[in-house]
Design brief:
heterodimer; A: 568 residues; alpha+beta; 6-stranded antiparallel sheet; B: alpha/beta; 53% helix; 19% strand; globular
Chain lengths: 568, 143
């Protein structure tokens, strides 16, 4: 039965929690997910667009640089003839002029005859007469008017590339060759650096690096492309590719063609780096979302538990109230029954007493000579005495079964207290409880209902006696007038009330007695009654210190007492 | 010891019998009735009744009603209410309606005789007053 009820409450609690969680989390998840997804795709598009723009711009820069250099070298062939350039002095002058004009980008100049042999040279190396007929860049450039070679180490053992201009004079082809410092060129590209892992480099058709690869770059890295991003690119020929690296990282590669497709400008960055801002905000969002969700779940669980506990409490209280009602009804009918029985017994007792009286009357006149006269008289007296006891009992029963009388009259507290004590004294005697009375009999009356006050004191006395039942003790009752108030205190030497219970002791249904023993109503009724009379009741207690109930009741002002009575 | 004419009204036959024997032994003339109607009839038949001892709780007419009837028909007859505890309030109400006093059942015979004595005295006072009033009335008329 108990577990059954618990199951029902648990089920209710679960249901409430589930409903609250669903209702609050579902929109959160939907809206959050949507925003999350939108944010992600928009941010991605932005990043790709930005990368594409950077690469496109860089591509333009590199292309411009190359075509500028080409034009500058070509300019030499326009202003000088083969003969002039073949003169080392003129060539030296031309190189110096160019270096002065454009910086030390131009390392050297050379004139190569139709056989590939360098016939004139100006520059830091001793390359006069070098044979280039087998060199790749030379062979490649043979049938083109102008050509820019790949970067290579060459004879000087330093990376560089060569611009060649083919020309002919008097039917004899010749070639002007200019070496471009690799460093200057490399810087152009390497300056493109985004984030921690983003860098640019240039590859030729064979995939050979034309710029210095990034320092610390894993040279064994193999990229496996898995997705091409179709991008509304700002420049033509920029393509974006996502790849999975052999190191487990994902990479985004943005590339565009240089030098009419001979070279490829590649920008490469770790995906996690490129999207670091997005990942960070995604992480924060996720954390907020998760902690919010957890908070909602915790709150829902807590609230539902609390709600159900409250419902359980109310249910319990209801049930207790119902039980109390039944109990009260039972008590009332028992009271009526007692009154009926008392009244019915009263008559036979009265008859018995009168008959005994009659017999003793008769004996007075006629039986004095009987030898057993004294014994019969004693027996009759006994009958009368015991009949009187019965009468007392029935009268007491009747007075407590009577309906409570809430008429307000003048009540003398000391007398009332003694009267009530007489009723509880029997129980007190069994419990080895001593009485200590300090009643000021000269005090004036309070105006209250006798039966209500009886009820209050009966409750307090019974509680005190019950508290001391185990070990005995002293019940002290004092009563005095002070100013315009009457003070009554009822103290016991029982085990006392723990501080935790002190604040609840006047609450209805609060009881420390075992189930079925106490209703928890006694003190709350006292509280209600005393307050109705305009008085106060409080309690002082602590564990091991016994308990003292103090009651203050207003005394009617002495001057107007007479008038009050007149009004009634 | 004491001369008094009394009507004892109670539905408890045993109680009435015991009491009337005890009171008769104290020189009283006792009439008995076991309910209100009998009591009124008895009062009619015996004009010398001075005091009625009347139980409050009886089947049929209860004590208060009977009291009102008595006070209406025989105003100078004194009534002592006899009550079980539960009917004290109605006994007090009876006093307000002109009963002489009330007693709780079972009662002490000495208390009862004392009250009867006082009631009889009051009865005679009232009777004298009434006689005097009648004499005054007649002399007044004669004059």
């Amino acid at each position: 039965m108990q577990t059954e009820a618990k199951k029902t409450y648990d089920k209710l609690s679960r249901k409430i929690a589930l409903t609250v969680i669903t209702v609050s989390l579902a929109p959160l998840i939907l809206v959050g997910g949507l925003i999350f997804d939108q944010f992600r795709s928009i941010y991605r598009a932005k990043v790709y667009a930005h990368l594409a723009e950077v690469v496109d711009k860089q591509n333009d820069n590199v292309n411009n640089f190359l075509s500028e250099k080409l034009a500058e070298v070509q300019y030499l062939t326009r202003v000088f003839t083969y003969e002039e350039l073949s003169d080392p002095q003129t060539l030296e002058q031309a190189l110096k002029g160019m270096q002065q004009q454009y910086g030390r980008i131009f390392v050297d100049l050379g004139i190569i005859d139709e056989n590939g042999s360098q016939v004139a040279y100006a520059g830091p190396f001793d390359l006069l007469g070098a044979d280039y007929s087998k060199a790749d860049w030379y062979i490649n450039s043979r049938n083109k008017k102008t050509c820019i070679s790949d970067v290579f180490m060459g004879l000087r053992q330093a990376p560089h590339f060569i611009i060649t201009i083919n020309n002919s004079s008097a039917g004899k082809p010749w070639t002007l060759r200019a070496t471009i410092d690799f460093l200057a060129f490399s810087n152009l590209v390497e300056n493109v650096h985004i984030g921690e892992t983003g860098y640019a480099y240039i590859l030729n058709k064979e995939g050979v690096f034309q710029t210095r690869p990034q320092v610390g770059r894993n040279s064994d890295l193999v990229l496996t492309p898995y997705e091409d991003i179709q991008q509304p690119t700002p420049g033509e020929g920029v393509s974006i590719q996502l790849s999975k690296g052999s190191d487990g990282e994902k990479y985004v590669t943005v590339s565009s063609l240089l030098k009419n497709g001979d070279w490829k400008l590649v920008y490469q960055q770790n995906m996690s780096d490129a999207f670091s801002a997005m990942i960070r905000s995604e992480f924060i969002t996720l954390v907020i979302f998760l902690s919010g969700g957890l908070a909602i779940i915790a709150m829902a669980l807590y609230l539902s538990r609390k709600l159900v506990t409250h419902i359980e409490f109310i249910d319990d209280e209801n049930e207790m109230m119902n039980r109390q009602m039944v109990e009260t009804g039972k008590l009332a009918s028992i009271g009526e029954l007692a009154a009926g029985i008392a009244h019915e017994i009263n008559n036979p007792v009265a008859i018995m007493i009168e008959e005994a009286g009659w017999v003793s009357d008769l004996l007075e006149d006629e039986g004095k000579e009987m030898s057993s006269y004294t014994e019969i008289t004693r027996a009759l007296e006994q009958v009368r005495t015991q009949g009187g006891r019965c009468k007392d009992i029935t009268h007491k029963l009747l007075s407590f079964a009577r309906k409570t009388d809430s008429r307000v009259v003048d009540v003398f507290l000391p007398e009332l207290i003694e009267e009530v004590l007489e009723i509880s004294i029997q129980q007190a005697r069994y419990a080895q409880v001593n009485l200590s009375l300090d009643l000021d009999r000269s005090m004036g009356p309070v105006r209250a209902s006798v039966s209500e006050l009886q009820q209050v004191f009966l409750n307090l006395f019974n509680n005190a006696v019950q508290a001391m039942e185990a070990e005995g003790g002293t019940l002290s009752v004092s009563c005095r007038a002070e100013g315009d108030e009457a003070y009554v205190s009822v103290a016991d030497t029982g085990p006392g009330i723990p501080a935790a219970n002190l604040s609840r002791i006047f609450d209805p249904f609060f009881t420390t007695k075992p189930v079925g023993k106490g209703s928890g109503l006694g003190l709350s009724i006292c509280f209600g009654l005393i307050h109705q009379m305009g008085g106060e009741i409080d309690v002082e207690s602590g564990v091991g210190q016994g308990a003292r109930f103090n009651i203050r009741l207003p005394l009617p002002p002495t001057g107007t007492e007479h008038d009050v009575e007149k009004e009634e | 010891m004491m001369d008094a004419t009394i009507l004892f009204v109670d539905d408890e036959v045993g109680f009435v019998d015991a009491m009337s024997k005890r009171l008769a032994r104290r020189n009283m003339t006792i009439h008995t009735a076991y309910d209100g109607d009998q009591a009124m009839k008895s009062l009619g038949e015996h004009p010398g009744i001075e005091v009625v001892i009347l139980d409050m709780k009886m089947p049929g007419k209860d004590g208060l009603e009977v009291l009102r009837d008595i006070k209406r028909d025989h105003p100078i007859v004194e009534v002592i209410m006899l009550t079980g505890h539960a009917t004290v309030e109605s006994a007090i109400e009876g006093m307000q309606n002109g009963a002489f006093d009330y007693l709780m059942k079972p009662c002490n015979i000495d208390d009862l005789t004392e009250k009867i004595r006082m009631a009889v005295k009051l009865y005679h006072d009232h009777e004298d007053e009434e006689v005097q009033a009648r004499i005054d009335d007649i002399t007044h008329r004669m004059a």
